[in-house]
Amino acid sequence: MAESSSGTKKTVGLITAISIAVANMIGTGVFTSLGYQVVDIQSAFALVMLWVVGGVVALCGALSYGELGAALPRSGGEYHLLSEIYHPSLGFLSGWISLTAGFAAPTAIAAIALGEYTHAVFPAVPVTHVGAISVVLITLVHSTSIRWGNYLQNISTAVKVGVVVLFIVLGFMASNHQPISLVPKSSDWGILVSPFFAVALVYVSYAYTGWNAAVYIVGEIQKPQKNLPKALFIATVMVTVLYALLNYVFLLLVPIPELAGKVEVGFLAAEQMLGPAAADVLSILISVLMISTISAMVFIGGRIAQVIGEDYGVFKMLGKRNEKQIPVNALIFQAIVTLLFLYTSTFEQVMVYATFLLIGMSSLTVAGVYVLRWRRPEMDRPYKTWGYPVTPAVFLLVNTFIMVYVILERPLESLVGLGIMIVGIILYMLNRKWGSFGEDTVYEE
């Protein structure tokens, strides 16, 4: 079994663990996804149900992760859990996906969104270059000072939550609402089982990415067996309510045809709600929200890359830290991969293949609840998944539904995702031949 690092301080309480999960979930997806969803789905009921279904699936995943994290309380997320449940090779593959799709791709998505929202206010500003500059500058901050990196994260996260709440309140107070209804028509039920709904769930799943964030730092959570499941549950329910309300507000404010294919959904809603001048201010605030997302991804992704570098010889350079204990090499590597995504793929492409891979890894992890109960029934389980065996099954069935239709409807993006996985397998084989595990990490099979 992988042992926790000795001397790890339990500094994270329940409230902080909830805040970490909420901050990681609320980001790019909820302010950008609706424009792609309405291209194929025009029913307000089905569009809001996307976010409810996404929240229920994330909740099922959170309840399942709660059991795994409480039974195997070591930081590292899927990287640790898959190594323990199945084999270190799957842990390595998960770590590789974290290095690329897990953090670099979402960072690129947030950077593109930041550029789009800035471009909406200042049309002369080039979207991609603004995103790239933001990635470089934020990486520079996190590479030079832990203190200033924390200041950047805390301030931008406070703005993030404030913007979401402000949007919901002002949206319901606005007088120019669209004539939409959440009462389902007979045709709406068919939409819920259509390929369009499955593909649209990709964007929703991406928006909920981060519901498992507390698992990555479980080794630092006080009373993890008790607080981790609570944090995952409370954070996911909170965000589900906020997401459903926020997207309902977007639909209330902007005609569906005007949303189609647009990234800057929040700007369009703010323009209808407050007028062009105030919308510019709110759009800049949303850009700050994207800064928070980029900052969180850079910070956490760099630390995970560092741990992988310590454990595997093929990534040895990423495991090194400078005299300030900052993993500069890992941060630079992640920035380079992010810029590669930024300049070679569209917003939609990056979101689809990143979500495709993340769904695959989280599904393997949730399936681990069944595997561990079968292989290690004697294991101490301070918390057991509520609703077992149905809860993990719901998560797995919905995600399988999504992945099948992504492969059918988005074959190019699926092939890119599979290509990333193949590169990870090759790197693992190279590590087996020329590398080695870190001396401090020991696994039992």
TrEMBL record:
Coiled coil segments of this chain: none
Sequence intervals crossing the membrane: 12-32, 44-68, 89-114, 120-143, 155-175, 195-219, 231-254, 281-305, 326-344, 350-374, 386-408, 414-430
Key words, A-Z: Membrane, Transmembrane, Transmembrane helix
UniProt membrane topology term: Multi-pass membrane protein
Main location, first listed in the record: membrane
Cell location: Membrane
Any Pfam family matching the protein: AA_permease_2
Annotated InterPro entries: AA/rel_permease1, AminoAcid_Transporter
Name of the protein this chain belongs to: Amino acid permease
Organism of origin: Fodinibius salicampi
Organism taxonomic ancestry: Bacteria, Pseudomonadati, Balneolota, Balneolia, Balneolales
